Amino acid sequence: MSASGKARLIEKRFPLAEINAVAEYEMAFLKMMPRELRERIRALVGVSELEFSDPPKIRSLMYYPARRPTSAARAVTLAAALEEGVDLEMFMEAVGFDELKRRAQRDKVFVPLHALDPDRELVAKLLGRDPKSVVVVDPMAGGGSIPLEALRLGFTAIAGDYNPVAYLLLRATIEFPAKYGRKLYQLVEEEARRMLEYARRELGRFYGENDKGYIFFRAARHDCGGVLPIVRTGALSSKKSVYVNFDFDKEAKVPVPRISNKQPPPLTACPYCGKPVSEKALQAKGVEEHVKLLEALLGGDESAADRIAEVYLLAAIQQVGRGRRGGGYRTPAQEDLERLKEAARELARMAKSGELHALLPLAEIPAGNRVFEEVRRVGLRHWYQLYSPRQLLAFAKLAAYVRRRVKELQSEYGEIGVTVALYLAVALAKLSDYNTLLTQWNASKQNIRSFSGSQYAGGKKANLGYDFCEAIVPYAGLPWILEAEEEEEEEGEEEFEETRGGMLPVLKLLCNSLEGLWAEGRDGVYLWDATKLDGALDAGSVDIIHVDPPYYDSTTTPGSPSSSGSSSSRP
């Protein structure tokens, strides 16, 4: 209810079909979008011959669970602020739907709602007051869709979360783009280019410049001393029937990978001695040897690098090529194995110098961590053990760079300099999500499957699989994550462009959209415990408490916002 006692617009009328369609489009992947959704969009905008664009999406800044579509958050938030008598067509125009249709009809290209700003002048007219006087609180803001759109509507946005990662992402998504605007984007873009130059200079020699991705199988020694791959299907492309098979050098007792169109048979007997093979025993030995190798390298033993091919079996290398599927695959050459060994030696040298241990996640994985309980059970007890040596080296080198640049940027620019460094740290976190022993190969899409987007999103359980993937950090991984090498805009071009999923296009959209909307002392992002906020917020100072659904099973007082739904208005 509003202060006048009238029902809110969202309680009586809401354009559910239209908002559902644009929200579904926002959350979909363009290449995988259902035909039925495309047809609905065409009917919605009244254009039968319509192309579809893929502008930056907020989720591409960094993965965070349960990110909600911002277009839906915008519409629901505005509908919760307006009284029921508001003209629905004017409401849709204020949300930005009319501009969406106009562009579609003019250009025959669909630009989704989240890429367009709402009409804040019309929002003020519908409210009959300054939009900044409307206070929206999201007590469990997570990825930030609700406070982001509240701010874009011109409202006062107050957001918080108990999770420190969410808190930093909220500031990176909402507060800093609104506070610093285009200046922030320009500085982050400059720093992204510097970070890429550093990565190529410091890490380039450890990777092949024309490589797109490395596919490894874990390996272990059989009782006879022969090295065996731990592999289930060996699939590189399930659609095109491309597999990794192995020939076995019985003299050297090592497997030699080759690309084939036939799936390899299960390994039930040792090809060197003929005795039975226990996959469970091999798995255990593989983990044991991995842990021993890392301990030796982190102890400064460069000679341990010679054992690297016995623990991590480089099976295939995806090549850079035209199209999103890459340029096919090749088997590893001797120079690829030498790069692996040299990266391990460099890791050991960093350890001997004393600079390494402050840069790595050496803490123990907590015994009560339910996500990683299976990983702990198989013998990986510390966070750093989730990486191979070259992955650890890349992490350490980039962490050292970010740590140094924080101090330099703070000295040069003050608070905004520290803010810029936060985005570099977010880039490192995003890179790590695609570059551990838990990042596996997606044979159906022929790309690296991130841990958070696959294992965590799918079941919130981490499992050590048969294969793992390694991003080509300086030449493919980091350039994709930052997406700093974009073309200059031409005069008259739209303020957004198509994106490959990198961070900078997202930040550009946020800075352009939010610049000047932050009111210091009114808007705010907080690290807090939402369960302890009862009574802390003055009911007379808050218009809308808006949280993500579903929270119907929360333990709350009957009639409170959390127990009655996802959005609640206060007088």
Verbal overview:
The structure is a single chain. 42% of the residues lie in helices and 14% in strands. With 571 residues, it is α/β, with parallel strands linked by helices. It has a 5-stranded mixed sheet. Strands 5, 6, 10, 11 and 14 form a 5-stranded antiparallel sheet that branches. Strand 3 (135-138), helix 8 and strand 4 form a beta-alpha-beta unit. Helix 2 (16-27) runs antiparallel to helix 4 (70-81) and helix 9 (164-203) packs across helix 14. It is elongated. The N and C termini lie close together (7 Å). The model is unreliable at 322-326, 487-496 and 550-571 (pLDDT under 50).
Any chance you could write out the topology, listing elements then pairs?
Elements (H helix, E strand, L loop, with lengths): L8 H4 L3 H12 L7 H11 L5 E2 L17 H12 L6 H8 L1 H11 L1 E2 L9 H8 L7 E4 L6 H8 L3 E6 L2 H40 L7 E11 L5 E4 L4 E3 L4 E8 L4 E7 L18 H20 L9 H4 E8 L9 E2 L3 H20 L19 H5 L11 H25 L1 H19 L6 E3 L4 E3 L2 H8 L7 E5 L1 H10 L20 H12 L9 E4 L16 E3 L14 H4 L2 E3 L2
Parallel strand pairs: 1-2, 3-4, 3-16, 4-15
Antiparallel strand pairs: 5-6, 5-10, 5-14, 7-8, 8-9, 10-11, 12-13, 16-17
Helix pairs in contact: 2-3, 2-4, 4-8, 5-7, 9-14, 9-15, 9-17, 9-18, 12-14, 14-15, 15-17
